[in-house]
Specification:
The protein has 170 residues and is of the alpha+beta class. 43% of the residues lie in helices and 15% in strands. It has helices at residues 31-43, 54-60, 62-76, 110-133, 139-142, 148-157, and strands at residues 7-14, 45-52, 83-87, 98-102. The chain has a two-stranded antiparallel ribbon with strand order 1-2. The chain has a two-stranded parallel ribbon with strand order 3-4.
């Protein structure tokens, strides 16, 4: 998983006429195509993005921070869906929208896939900005994930303020 940077979630309501043929799990889409799909989804849906900071991750843990980012995304939506499908085992608490958790939902449900594409592209862009601030860490190449390169850099340079200090390798 990620060792650095905030956690993002997106909420998406797709337009009825959107072409979902190429929409799939964001982890299975090449970088450039993911950007094109994110732009396409944004133009053809109602969407919102939620974020939880590194400080929040370190304070309340990654699961609760992820749920908080989901809650923020859902609360920012301009339209209210009758139900929100959430990838995983858990749903945000105290929601005015009915939420249903779906294990491996990002492999099965087009709206979850669309949301994961927007969230991943948003996060990747933030990590590219952090790469400018902390160029020695190479965030634009590994996006904060625990790659060998990132772990080697962490060993040499130590953690930055955007590293999740509650995570073991950090």
């Amino acid at each position: 998983g990620c060792l650095a940077g905030p956690v993002f979630a997106a909420a998406v309501i797709l337009n009825n006429d959107i072409n979902i043929k190429d929409i799939k799990d964001s982890k299975k889409i090449p970088f450039q195509k993911r950007i094109l799909l994110s732009n396409y989804i944004k133009k053809n849906s109602t969407y919102a993005v939620g974020r939880a900071s590194v400080e929040e991750i370190n304070k309340i843990n990654i699961l609760n921070a992820s749920l908080l980012s989901m809650k923020r995304a859902l609360n920012k939506l301009k339209l209210r869906p009758s139900i929100a499908y959430i990838d995983g085992l858990f749903v945000p608490k105290n929601m005015k929208i009915k939420c249903e958790a779906l294990i491996k939902g990002d492999e099965k449900i087009d709206i979850i896939q669309a949301a994961s594409i927007i969230a991943k592209v948003t996060r990747d862009r933030i990590m590219d900005k952090y790469d400018i601030i902390f160029p020695e860490y190479g965030f634009s190449s590994h996006k904060g994930y625990g790659t060998k390169k990132h772990l080697d850099i962490l060993h040499e340079w130590k953690a930055t303020p955007i590293h999740r200090k509650s995570f073991r390798p950090v």
